[in-house]
Amino acid sequence: QVQLVESGGGLVQAGGSLRLSCAASGRRTFSSYVMGWFRQAPGKEREFVAVISWSGGSTNYADSVKGRFTISRDIAKNTVSLQMNSLKPEDTAVYYCNAKYGPEEYWGQGTQVTVSS
């Protein structure tokens, strides 16, 4: 059974930084999976934040986080991270880790990020 477990969320002041991590388990390796981060703010739909290719050589970001967030992965450790800098109150949301390979798609339980003004 594939499991994705996020960590690293919390409360931070505007302009601060947080680093989210996602640990994947249930497969010998996740090297073929595209890994990503999504977020959902109260009263809003879940939205794309960032994605990284199976090799780690290609990344893509939502316009709202470009230049502030960096996604990375450690294939050997089956982890994916999201470094978030210059955080804004509008970044407040539950952040979800996502793993996708062909028709397979998995989600973590989410971690709360709250940015105070």
Regions with little confidence, pLDDT below 50 for 5+ residues: none
| Count of DSSP H/I helices | 0
Distance between the termini: 40 Å
Would you count the extended β strands for me?
A: 11
Principal-axis shape: globular
Structural class: mainly beta
Rg calculated over all Cα atoms: 13 Å
Strand content: over 45%
Order of helices and strands: EEEEEEEEEEE
Largest sheet: 7 strands, mixed
What is the typical, i.e. mean, pLDDT?
A: 95
- Estimated helix fraction: under 10%
Word description of this protein:
This protein is mainly β and 117 residues long. The protein is 0% helix and 55% strand. The protein contains no helices and 11 strands. Strands 2, 4, 5, 6, 9, 10 and 11 form a 7-stranded mixed beta sheet that branches. A 4-stranded antiparallel beta sheet has the order 1-3-8-7, with no helix packed on it. A hairpin with a 6-residue loop joins β5 and β6 (59-61).
